[in-house]
Specification:
It is a single chain. The chain is α+β, with helices and mostly antiparallel strands. The protein has 10 helices and 35 strands. The longest helix has 35 residues, at 612-646.
């Protein structure tokens, strides 16, 4: 996510000169302040840092003993220099009082595998079959030395999985087995760069080291970032995602355990990072991403959009949709309709000087207006993309849904004009702050994007609820595994009384997509319930709140084969320091069941529900792959033995 620099001879010299001056400044601080006096009592290897643990939450303030059994790792010059800079940042004080390392943000140490979950209220519906997965950051208590940002998570990103079947649920949580995790586990310490440490003078020095430091361990820096943002199952492959990285593929075993497979590049086609929010479009996978890497920005552009075809087993269109290379917009998500991919260039843009001035690298600029790019799904060039300026600043993070409408005007029963409209429902912010310590305001709006007049306007659906993290039910499938396409809007007419005109409107909002959901957002990534939106009647249908003294994450929508829809989330009850999974009936909005989790589930990022048939297909695919590999190995082993006997 950050601008990369090549550590050439000039940069190396500048870094050393800057480091020399910095050491003098650091020494002055140590001798002239109380903090410096405290820091000087510590050795060059920083002491273990402790923050609120599960034991702390339940009873006494028990500190885990540091693991000193591992041998001292071999460290290169860059590694030693990076550790020295970390010391100069005085991170022990930063970490000790970090708001995202205590309470329910505190990481967990224990992994669980296929633990049966206790139902404390209601019953688990027997028609729910599949896996509820949610990942998020989970830094290692014992190793943590570098400055921290909640988006880091770093080496111990945790996937929390509830597998539902036959009215029962089992829980597995595991550190995602990425190469980053495996390298740092072997070293017994943090190694790779973090968002949090890119701050101030020493952060600038770390930026100069970043690319070369990563290259010492991994061939591609897109493999070094934590896969902690979201997950998706596509074409029998489970991907753990981070929008500045390549998709990390894992195999999920039947007990929920994860096994590392590799990084997806679609046969070497991906030259940009990959979005954390790809979208399934029938058998195709739509994706996009953006880059802040200066060289790539100059050579290609800020963002790229692609379509992977499952039938062709290849990426089709994959191109930069704009010729503008003047800035980098925070393109976290996108949307699509039957015919269009809808992307946006928002008012949240990358600021290089944040390294010195402080704050987030992505900042809201009210002078930059929100623009929409409409591209047909088969277009292949930025010249085919229609860009429409809304004329107002705005930030979109997680859109809810999009569809198309066609308006036809008739005069004396003869059609005189046709307009194509793209409807987009999304939470919209006018004051978005990327600093997770701040609470931005989001309101659900409906954008009407007129393709013919090249105009975009919006209307606020509800002014009272602060809402974000949108979720739609998965497409309904028939017994033949084909997607339904029933239309909500039949042709409807409005007859003019004065000019004998008639307007007919048809749309592609399916009846199965009438309702969408989003989290009710209060503060610092915390949700207290969910909102149900009626996109046909254009209103808030219902707001549902979790229990008293409970905070949760984003709502995840579950659609069963019988078209029953549920909304689920992990919640944390502050009064008893326990985590629960709550499940609501999306039609009645009543609590269906409450599950008490075997351990606390920290606040995380995005979740998804993997349908049981899709999950079973994934299991069988990998079991067949394993059996095939075993057969091949047995064949080669037999041939080797026969050849030895013949010799």
């Amino acid at each position: 996510m950050f601008r990369q620099y090549r550590l050439d001879s000039v940069s190396r010299l500048a870094a050393l000169l800057l480091l020399r001056a910095s050491i003098g400044t650091y020494a002055f601080l140590l001798t002239s302040s109380n903090i410096g006096h405290q820091a000087s009592q510590h050795s060059s290897i920083l002491p273990p840092l402790y923050y609120l643990s599960d034991d702390d939450l339940d009873s006494t303030n028990i500190k885990p003993e540091p693991n000193t059994s591992k041998k001292k790792p071999h460290r290169s010059f860059l590694h030693k220099l990076d550790r020295l800079l970390t010391e100069f940042q005085m991170t022990q004080f930063h970490l000790q009082f970090h708001p995202h390392l205590s309470g329910n943000y505190a990481p967990v140490d224990k992994e669980n595998f296929e633990v049966e979950v206790e139902v404390v209220e209601g019953q688990i519906p027997k028609d729910i079959w599949g896996a509820f997965c949610r990942n998020g950051p989970n830094p290692n208590r014992e190793w943590q030395r570098k400055r921290y940002h909640w988006f880091d998570g770093r080496e111990f990103d945790n996937l929390h999985t509830l597998i539902f079947k036959n009215g029962k649920a089992t829980y597995t949580n595991q550190y995602i087995p990425s190469p980053r995790y495996q390298i740092e586990e072997e070293l017994g310490e943090e190694y790779f760069p973090t968002i949090g440490e890119y701050s101030g003078l020493f952060g600038l020095l770390k930026v100069l080291l970043t690319k070369n430091l990563v290259k010492e361990k991994l061939e591609d820096d897109r493999m070094s970032l934590p896969p902690n943002t979201s997950i998706i199952m596509y074409n029998n492959k489970l991907y753990c995602l981070h929008e500045a990285a390549l998709p990390l593929e894992c195999r999920m075993h039947r007990d929920g355990r994860l096994e590392y497979v590799g990084f997806e590049t679609f046969d070497g086609v991906l030259d940009f990072p990959f979005t954390a929010h790809p979208l399934k479009d029938g058998d195709d996978l739509l994706f996009h991403s953006y880059t802040t890497e200066e060289k790539m920005l100059k050579e290609q552009g800020m963002t790229k959009v692609g379509v992977y075809s499952q039938k062709q087993h290849a990426v089709g269109p994959y191109f930069v949709p704009t010729a503008d290379k003047s800035h980098v917009s925070f393109a976290h998500s996108f949307a699509h309709t039957d015919n269009y991919i809808v992307i946006w260039d928002s008012s949240v843009q990358f600021q290089h000087d944040a390294l010195v001035t402080g704050g987030s690298f992505f900042q809201f600029n009210p002078k930059r207006t929100l623009k929409f790019g409409l591209m047909h799904k088969n277009c292949t060039s930025h010249e085919d993309v229609l860009w429409i300026d809304s004329g107002e600043p705005g930030a979109i993070l997680h859109s809810l849904h999009a569809w198309e409408e066609v308006e036809e005007k008739f005069l004396n029963n003869e059609k005189v004009s046709t307009r194509t409209l793209v409807k987009l429902w999304t939470p919209l912010s006018k004051d978005f702050d990327m600093d997770v310590d701040q609470c931005s305001s989001f309101r659900m709006v409906e954008f009407t994007i007129d393709v013919n007049e090249e105009r975009a306007v919006y209307e606020v659906i509800n002014h009272s609820i602060n809402t974000e993290m949108s979720a739609m039910p998965s497409p309904l499938k028939t017994d033949t595994d084909a997607f339904t396409s029933c239309v909500v809007f039949p042709p409807r007419a409005t007859i003019g009384t004065s000019d004998n005109t008639e307007t007919r409107c048809t749309g592609t909002l399916k009846s199965t997509d009438r309702f969408g959901f989003s989290g009710i957002y209060v503060d610092k990534g915390v949700f207290v319930g969910y909102a149900k939106w009626d996109m046909l009647n254009r209103c808030l249908a219902r707001s549902v709140y979790y229990g008293e003294d409970e905070i949760g994450g984003e709502p995840v929508v579950i659609r069963t084969e019988s078209d029953q829809i549920y909304v689920g989330s992990y919640v944390y009850r502050k009064s008893d320091h326990h985590s629960y999974f709550v499940l609501y009936d999306a039609n009645t909005n009543r609590l269906v069941c409450r599950l008490k989790m075997p351990q606390r589930v920290p606040q995380g990022f995005h979740g998804t529900f993997i349908d049981g048939r899709e999950l079973e297909s994934h299991f069988l695919y990998h079991e067949e792959q394993s059996q095939s590999m075993k057969s091949d190995n047995d064949l080669w082993e037999n041939l080797f033995r026969k050849s030895r006997r013949m010799m």
